[in-house]
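Record 1 of the preview.
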Amino acid sequence: MSSIRHLLPLPQVHADGQLLSWWRGLRALAVLNIGLWLLVLNLGPVHNPYAQIHLALSGVYVLVCAYRSVFPRVDLERLVVVDTRLSSIFLGRSAATVAEICFAMQLGLIVHQLAGQAGLPWVQKAAWSIPVFMTVAQAFCWHSVLTLNHITQAVESSLWAAGFSWMAALLGVIALNSSSWVQALAVFGMLGAACFVTYVLRVDVPMYWRRYQQGRATGLTYMPLHHGARDAWERRVHSGSWDAWKADAMWLTPYFSVGVWISIALACVPAGPGVMPG
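->
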């Protein structure tokens, strides 16, 4: 970690012990995740077209999550740990948009891949609708970031939940029409998707709804899009208080750990004989 700090000097951060511990953990995760991706690149079974596409998409996700781990932010509150231009809300959200679309493409790709193994061409075609949910969600996310309206952030999270629900349904069809490791992986994916949907609907959406109601109660004025874009580029609110971060840490931590590990692991799924993306 000291060598990384030497290569990427950071301003002095004033924060309480809990926040500093969490931030150190995020940076350690970033190093671990890059190492895991490089390990899979050099030693993993990445010689089939599916794995190569997964690895490329995962590489984007891993790097963006590493960047966001070093410079954490909460978009609408303009909250940052490190008060530097690299913590720009606009810059971070732009990188996150690209990374999340890459991850969504991986989700569609893995369903396409497993459906090919199960001999279900209609599921393969339906798999490409999965990333549509997450891509549309980005527009709602940007609206909330630029206007400071949390209601569209709740819509964004709901769209992610809808996309994962549709993915779980397609994996269920695959599980019913396959066997061996394909069936096992489809069932595992169903369970993982169900856990994610439950988390989003019980934690994320209610959190954003509460913030929307609090904004209305305090008379929060929403910004026009062009003013919001400038504000997102320029304004940063540094806070070293764990109390200000702990609610968002509940989703940022699994995002930068479990989400990244799943992204990397997808590159290790066998393509199967004669199965090609398309």
